[in-house]
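FAQ

Q: What does a record look like?
A: Structure on top, sequence underneath. For example:
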C-alpha cells in the first residue's frame, strides 16, 4: 500500500513539477513543436477556401455585421500568421536549426497563444449570435494534444486567455445561471486540457530520456565509460569522409596499454581492469572535448584528433604524460601505468579507408613497443 501511494505521489509530482529541462531536450523538443506548427499552418491554409466560402457567401445574409466582420478578421488573421510562419520556417532552414533557442521559444509561445486567443474570440463572437462556445473548447483540447508543454508555459497561455474569455462572457450573457454554467464548464475544460498537455509533455520527456539511455548503452564501453568499438569505428568513418570532402586535418592515434597481461597473471583480472580504467582516465583528461577516445579491444584504444595541428597534439600528449606521472606517484600499486602508441596523419588526396588507417597506426605502435623499456610511455612516429 505504501509503495503504491509513493509511486502515485511521484507520478503526481512529475505532472505538476516545473523543473528546467536540459538544453539537449529543449533543442530536440523545440524542433518537434516547430514541425507541428508547420503542419497546423499548412492545414489552416488548405482549409481557408472553406472559411472564405463561409465568410463571404454562406453567412453573407447574417444581419449582425459585427459578427461577420469579427469572424472574417479571425479567419484572415489565421491565414496571415500561417503564411508568415511557413515563410519564416523556410527562411530559418531545416527546422530552424540556426535560430537561438530563446527565439524558438518565443515563436512557439506566440503562435500557440495566438491560436488559443483566436479560439476564445471566435467563441465569444458565436456566443453573441448563437450562444455556442464550442470553438474555444475544441481549441483548448487540440492545443493540449498537439503542443504539450511544461506546466508553467502551458498554464500561462491558458490562464491569460481564459481570463479574457470568461470576462468577455460576462459582457455577452445576461442570464446569471447560464453565465456561471459556461464559466465553470470552460474552466473545468481548461484544467483538463492543462493536465492532458502536461501529461503528454512528461511522457515525451521520459521517452526522450529512455532513448538517450538506450543510445548510451549501445555506444558506451561498460568498463571504462568511453565510446565503444562499434560507435568509435562509425565516428572514425564519418570524420574520414569529412576530411576527404572538406580537406580538414585528421590524425589517429592507436594506443596499447603496457604490461596488462603481466598484471592480470600476477594480481588478477580485477587489478587488470583497474589498470585499464586508470590509464583511460589519464588519457581522457589530456584530450580536448572535440577529440574522440574509444576502446577498440581489451587493452587497445584509439584517439581521433579532429582538425588539430602537430603542436596542439603535442600539448595534449604533455598533459597526458603529466597525468600518467601524477597517477603513478599517488597510485601505490605494485605496477605502473604506461602505454605505447603509434600515429597516423591523414594528408590531402589519400585514398585510404578506416581499416588501413588503424593497421598503419597499429604497425607504428608495435615498432615503438619493441623499444619500450622500463615500462615508460613510448611515442610512435
Amino acid at each position: 500500500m505504501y509503495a503504491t501511494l509513493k509511486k502515485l505521489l511521484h507520478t503526481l509530482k512529475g505532472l505538476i513539477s516545473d523543473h528546467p529541462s536540459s538544453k539537449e531536450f529543449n533543442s530536440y523538443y523545440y524542433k518537434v513543436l516547430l514541425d507541428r506548427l508547420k503542419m497546423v499552418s499548412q492545414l489552416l491554409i488548405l482549409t481557408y477556401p472553406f472559411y472564405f466560402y463561409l465568410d463571404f457567401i454562406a453567412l453573407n445574409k447574417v444581419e449582425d455585421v459585427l459578427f461577420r466582420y469579427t469572424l472574417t478578421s479571425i479567419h484572415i488573421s489565421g491565414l496571415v500568421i500561417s503564411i508568415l510562419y511557413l515563410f519564416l520556417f523556410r527562411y530559418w532552414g531545416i527546422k530552424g536549426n540556426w535560430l537561438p533557442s530563446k527565439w524558438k521559444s518565443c515563436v512557439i509561445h506566440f503562435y500557440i497563444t495566438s491560436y488559443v486567443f483566436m479560439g476564445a474570440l471566435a467563441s465569444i463572437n458565436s456566443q453573441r449570435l448563437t450562444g455556442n462556445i464550442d470553438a474555444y473548447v475544441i481549441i483548448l483540447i487540440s492545443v493540449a494534444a498537439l503542443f504539450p508543454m511544461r506546466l508553467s508555459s502551458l498554464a500561462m497561455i491558458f490562464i491569460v486567455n481564459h481570463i479574457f474569455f470568461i470576462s468577455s462572457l460576462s459582457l455577452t450573457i445576461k442570464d446569471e445561471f447560464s453565465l456561471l454554467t459556461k464559466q465553470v464548464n470552460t474552466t473545468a475544460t481548461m484544467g483538463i486540457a492543462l493536465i492532458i498537455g502536461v501529461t503528454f509533455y512528461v511522457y515525451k520527456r521520459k521517452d526522450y530520456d529512455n532513448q538517450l539511455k538506450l543510445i548510451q548503452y549501445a555506444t558506451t564501453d561498460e568498463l571504462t565509460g568511453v565510446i565503444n568499438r562499434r560507435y568509435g569505428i562509425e565516428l572514425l568513418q564519418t570524420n574520414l569522409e569529412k576530411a576527404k570532402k572538406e580537406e580538414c586535418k585528421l590524425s589517429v592515434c592507436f594506443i596499447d596499454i603496457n604490461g596488462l597481461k603481466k598484471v592480470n597473471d600476477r594480481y588478477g583480472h580485477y587489478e587488470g581492469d583497474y589498470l585499464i580504467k586508470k590509464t583511460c582516465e589519464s588519457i581522457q583528461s589530456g584530450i580536448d572535448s572535440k577529440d574522440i577516445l574509444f576502446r577498440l579491444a581489451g587493452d587497445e584504444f584509439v584517439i581521433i584528433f579532429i582538425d588539430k595541428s602537430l603542436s596542439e597534439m603535442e600539448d595534449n600528449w604533455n598533459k597526458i604524460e603529466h597525468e600518467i606521472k601524477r597517477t603513478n606517484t599517488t597510485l601505490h600499486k605494485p605496477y605502473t601505468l604506461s602505454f605505447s602508441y603509434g600515429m597516423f596523419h591523414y594528408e590531402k588526396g589519400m585514398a585510404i579507408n578506416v581499416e588501413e588507417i588503424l593497421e598503419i597506426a597499429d604497425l607504428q605502435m608495435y615498432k615503438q613497443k619493441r623499444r619500450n623499456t622500463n615500462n615508460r610511455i613510448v611515442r610512435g612516429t
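Q: Is there anything notable about this one?
A: The chain is about 70% helix and 5% strand.
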